[in-house]
Design goal:
The chain has about 250 residues and is α+β, with helices and mostly antiparallel strands. It has a single domain, classed as Metallo-beta-lactamase, Chain A (4-Layer Sandwich). The strands form three sheets. A seven-stranded mixed sheet has the order 9-10-11-12-14-15-16. A hairpin with an 8-residue loop joins strand 14 and strand 15. The relative contact order is 0.16.
Amino acid sequence: MTVTSLRDGYVDMPIRRLRQPGNIVFGDKLPSQVALVDGALRLSVNAFAIDDGDDITLIDTGASNAWHPTMGHLPEALREAKIAIDRVRTIAFTHTHLDHIHGLILADGRDGFPQLTRLLVPRLELGMFRAEARLERFHSRAQPFDAGQRVSAHIETIAAAGHEVGHTCFRVMSEDETLLIWGDIVHVPSLQFDRPEITWEFDADQEEARASRLQIMALAADNGCYVAGAHLDSPGVGRVFRAERGFRFEPL
């Protein structure tokens, strides 16, 4: 199997999006390793293509032109990776925030993946997906999935709720290697591995998001898994290790 990281672009966010326990705006001085761009946190926006030799499963699709103009480069990334869009038959979402789902439709209004046969949405977020007017043509095509369900022979889902009610991690297994494609478990990698208690303003349930982050990081560290994150610095793939305080991320 081949997994390809595809960069949809990036988004700059104010520091106040970071929250301490109790939804308290992050007031600590940022550690030196947290780099800012014009005073903002720059988050990469990544999607991941899983090629089993027959078909390609795409995890998340980026934002297209639904949000900031610094995103919407998934088609360009696919071309760069020499991935034919007609081979993308399954798309599965980690959750239904707009920077993960709107790449279904290109900026010019055409379908991004004309040969799509399966569109998988977390069951608990099916209503949220169907509330997106721009994606109306896909509403009836969306198929719900539950945590613990197998997407294919090599891909299964793991509950990771908190950032959103149905937020899901995908465990990809091939021979003796495992990759966790974990969506928005981490937004600011330069801070949240070392201090996993720090949450994000847009977490639907910050306490649950914190618990899921600790659980998934421990799963990755204790089992030697690779991880791939939607907002880890591109290409967004590496390994997680336990540290004296929190965890440590080593990118590929």
